[in-house]
Amino acid sequence: MLVLASASPRRGFLLSEWGYDFEVVRPAVDECWPPDAGPEAGTIILAERKAAAGWLLWEKRGGGPGDVILSADTVVTLDGRVFGKPADGADAERMLTELSGRTHKVVTGFALMYAEEGGAVRVACDCAVSMVRFHKLTAAQIRAYVAGGESLDKAGAYACQGEGRKLVRRIDGSQDNVIGLPMEKLLSYLSARGIYPADRRREPPARAESSMRKGTARRAARSLRPAGRRIADLPTEIKPRERAVRSGVRALSNGELLAILLRVGTPGENVLQLAERILTESEGLRGLAKRALPELINTRGVGQAKAVLILAALELGRRAADDAEIKEKAFIRQPADAVALLKDMRDLDREHFRVLTLNTKNMVLGIETVSVGTLNTSVVHPRECFKPALRRGANAVILAHNHPSGDPSPSNQDIEITQRLVECGKILGINVLDHIIIGDKNFISLKESGDLR
């Protein structure tokens, strides 16, 4: 029997949603934060306290030796400070004001308490981390949310499954973890104790007798291991692909989307756990997008093929975001307008040569990378440079490339290439309006500097 030692209806809802049957006890525990404890260690310590108190309550009810007590504790951290439950409405408003427009960490520690065959009581514990970014909130929005009463018993003064979901812009990691139980990670711990969702419950394998053959013993041991490595081994209700079909890909967490790309986990770590670990180590999706290919290849459980697939998916997302931004800033009136669309070039470690294609009203039709060079040079051929313009029927182009050194000063080669491309454009009937060189903190327009004629 699974026993939830928590008064939180949110944790009970998650267990029910995932198909678990359970009983509830509500232990009274001192939730004073452990001195000098970090968020991960602190949540586990508090979860263990709750599990111990829940164990005593359940024993008084006549609990059996095979029962498992589950408890958890969730906190929000920002800039190294722990945000627990607010003391009152003013405290809730203070917390939300600090979280507004920023990314914070949500940590949930959990503990499973159970008795072994000899009667010894054991505790299995772990924690999960998710990164949450808030929208920029107005004082009126914060007051209205706090006035609704939802924030007063929640860590960080919000609930992402209630009205508080309107405050949240993005979640990197497990959304269930933010609600109060990291179900993807908890699943393997429950399975190891013989606790399964109602539609998957089965009798545990018979223990190996002394006369059991080695091969049979190994198979029995494998069946007692935590959740399998592949998505196919996971319960249907948590398979990311099935959830995507059932609820749409927008309903999936970042961890679930990444798990679909990874496909398989590692020994002792299913694919959802692997995805969560990679996001945690990368400090969220944005950090993952900044990781270099060799670094990602060397991450345990990834390798070359998966690393390339992950970075390709992130690049597609970046390009889609660029297209959306182009629609918002469609017209180029001055070089700074073009630079605003190319701001990511400041962070590139190699020279990239891009072409902005424009119509007769200088509205941007698209942005394409036509050449990627080395640390200090890029080679661009006129054929590749004007191919996007011809394909889109553009009237003009703006050329752009970056200097990874941070200094946007044009070299003699930059000026020579620009003049060559201007002449080629005249032959094709496509105007070269400018060539912009982007450095670390500034840029140079060759048209404004007089080097484009």
Provide key terms for this protein.
19% strand, seven-stranded mixed β-sheet, alpha+beta, Maf protein, elongated, 453 residues, five-stranded mixed β-sheet, Cytidine Deaminase, domain 2
Structural class: alpha+beta
Question: How large a portion of the residues is in β-strands, by DSSP E?
Answer: 15-25%
Separate helix tally: 17
- Tally the beta strands: 12
What does this structure look like?
The protein has 17 helices and twelve strands. It is of the alpha+beta class and 453 residues long. It folds into three domains: 2-199, Maf protein, CATH 3.90.950.10; 230-320, no CATH class; 329-449, 3-Layer(aba) Sandwich (Cytidine Deaminase, domain 2), CATH 3.40.140.10. Strands 1, 2, 3, 4, 5, 6 and 7 form a seven-stranded mixed sheet that branches. A five-stranded mixed sheet has the order 9-8-10-11-12, sandwiched between helices. A hairpin with a 4-residue loop joins β11 and β12. 37% of the residues are buried.
Can I get a quick summary?
The protein is built from 17 helices and twelve strands.
What is the fold's blueprint, element by element?
Blueprint: E1 2-5, H1 9-17, E2 23-25, H2 39-60, E3 68-78, E4 81-83, H3 89-99, E5 103-115, E6 121-134, H4 139-147, E7 168-172, H5 175-179, H6 183-192, H7 214-223, H8 240-247, H9 254-262, H10 271-281, H11 285-290, H12 293-297, H13 303-328, H14 335-341, E8 352-358, E9 364-372, H15 382-392, E10 396-402, H16 412-428, E11 431-438, E12 443-445, H17 446-449
Parallel strand pairs: 1-2, 1-3, 10-11
Antiparallel strand pairs: 3-4, 3-5, 5-6, 6-7, 8-9, 8-10, 11-12
Helix pairs in contact: 3-4, 9-10
